[in-house]
Amino acid sequence: MHIPDGFLDVKTAATTTGLALIGVGWAVRRVRKTLPPRKVPLLGLAAAFVFAAQMLNFPVAGGTSGHLVGGVLAAVLLGPSAGLLVLTSVLIVQCLLFADGGILALGANIFNMGIVGSAGAYGVYWLVRRAARGLRGQLAAAAFASWCSVVLASLSCASQLAFSGTARWTIACPTMCGIHMVIGVGEAVITTLVLAAVAATRPELLRDEARPAEGAGHGGLIVYGVLIATGLALFISPFASPWPDGLERVAENLGFLGKAVEEPLVPAPIPDYAFPSLGSPVAATALAGAVGTAMMFVFSFFLARLVSPRRAHDAHHPTGMQDHAPRLP
Amino acid sequence: MHHDFLDRHARLESPVHRLPPRVKLAAAMSLLFTIILIPAAHAAWFGLIAVGLLAIAAMSRVPPGFLLRRLLLMGPFVLGVAILSLFQPGGEAIFLRLLARGTLCLLTVLVLASTTPFSEILRVLRSLRAPSILVTTLALMYRYVFVLVDEAQRMNRARASRTFGRGRSRLWRTRASVIGQLFVRSTERAERIFAAMSARGWRT
Questions:
Q1: What is the C-alpha separation between A194 and A307, in angstroms, rounded?
Q2: A320 located within any domain
Q3: % chain A with pLDDT above 70
Q4: What ipTM describes this predicted complex?
């Protein structure tokens, strides 16, 4: 999801850089105030950890493989502000040393994967966490938040590409979100498995009720929420206008659509994504998204149940790894 | 394990490597802006910039094969985003323009990355008054990324030599437990590092 250089125009790059600067600035302030000095080296190590974890491949079907992104993992383990700093560092290194994600697009990438995908998704985690208690609830919240993290980041990325005139919103949004709704399931499974593994060996690293996570606090979440809302409103609102003319007019005004050509709003590449029986393709796409989200919400709790370490067995197998091994006669 | 997979050729001897990092960073940024701002009608400029970049790359004595490999490694991502642009009126022209822009920008960053050591970039960031906690994080990350990647591979190898391949879900579980363990070890290492840093008089 790293946007390379050359795909964003100047206005989008400047706006996202501004938003990213505000978000990271806030995170720096927050961390400086709340993080005890002995935890400062942990930020660097956690950034290296996320980087190393991204290099471990998980085999998916047919020779392809995926890897962790780690936005929610970092936020849950360190708190949203520290998590945002960690993700920012990872993105800076990937951009400057691997050319993975552009320099001018760095602000956009920090906004998408750091502010939306880490701090914003932590808000989702926090909300679900309030309703569901215990380790299982925590894992379910993390699973759902990880999925939301990937999908929301891709939505934000698509909106910036469309706003730059690189791709049409009606193509970019369903394509990117559709693909990432699938990728997000993998991210949710990996994040949950990793958190369960940490809970099995060092549960005190996960216990978040006892110590309010560094830099969490409602104030912090509100700032990130306002930033995300501003960004999404800026980039998506030109396309979400209820009048059919609005989109074309804005496009003409900004001069990034050559000429309006009549085209079906949701094209062939992913016909399954829209419910065909509904009249408006936009409503159909929205409904498909809502159904997918609801399904993922239920699946999160199922997943948490599946992977949470079983206390009864822990006495015999302290690692928590042996539970599912078939017993030999 | 290759300990130079990050900025492998950043410490070669060449006129490009000797340039002050601040100048190189500024030049790269302005070149990137130029590439983005060139109107589509002036396609010849893309060729000119490409020739210039290749000349700089040749002067820097970074092996061309290395640059090409990195370019091909990142190429699919550029291509993937560019394909989205095909589905719109006049898409082919936009697609070609994006491809040219994306590749040129990629080459610019690659040349910058393989002629400037990361520690020099950090020094520039510090002199630009970047928040010290961010620079410290970046510096520590750069220092320990090699250590942690090594550690992850060691744990993976240990795991692979002890367990038989028994299906995908098993593999996912063990991989995830390697990552979890890696985090636990990172926090422990961070505590040791803090003790060592305090013993040497470090202050935030």
A1: 10
A2: no
A3: 76
A4: 0.89
Residue that has been written with the tokens 């040497």 in this structure: B200
A210-224, A230-244, A254-268, B172-186, range with the lowest pLDDT: A254-268
Would you say residue A328 lies in a domain? no
A243 CB neighbour count, 10 Å cutoff: 8
pLDDT (tens digit, 9 = 90+) per residue, A151-207?
Answer: 999 999 989 988 887 777 887 888 888 888 888 998 999 999 999 999 888 888 876
pTM for this one? 0.84
Count how many domains chain A has.
Answer: 1
Closest CA to A139 of A182, A188, A80, A81: A188
Q: Which chain B residue is nearest to residue A203, measuring alpha carbons?
A: B184
Q: Residues of A with CB below 8 A from B88's CB?
A: 167-168, 171, 257
The CA distance from A255 to A238, in Å, is: 13
* Distance from C-alpha of A69 to C-alpha of A61, rounded to nearest angstrom: 19
What is the SS3 assignment for A25? helix
Residues B7-39: pLDDT tens digits? Answer: 677 777 888 888 888 998 899 889 988 888 887
Beta carbons of B183 and A49 less than 8 Å apart: yes
Residue A4 lies in a domain: no
Residues in Cβ contact with A115 at an 8 Å cutoff, skipping those fewer than 6 apart: A19, A20, A23, A84, A224, A227, A228, A231
The one-letter code for the residue type at B16 is: V
In a domain, A53, yes or no: yes
**pLDDT in the model for residue A267:** 44
Structure tokens at B98: 């994006």
Q: A10-34 vs A134-163: helix axis angle to the nearest 10?
A: 150
Provide the domain limits for residue A80. Answer: 10-310
Please determine, for residue A24, whether its predicted confidence score (pLDDT) is greater than 90: yes
Q: Is the pLDDT of residue B128 over 80?
A: yes
Q: Do B148 and A52 touch (CB under 8 A)?
A: yes
Name the closest residue on chain A to residue B8, using Cα atoms.
A97
The token pair that represents A133 in the structure block: 């208690």
| Contact assignment for A6 to B36 by CB distance below 8 Å | yes
Assign residue A64 the CATH number of its domain. 1.10.1760.20
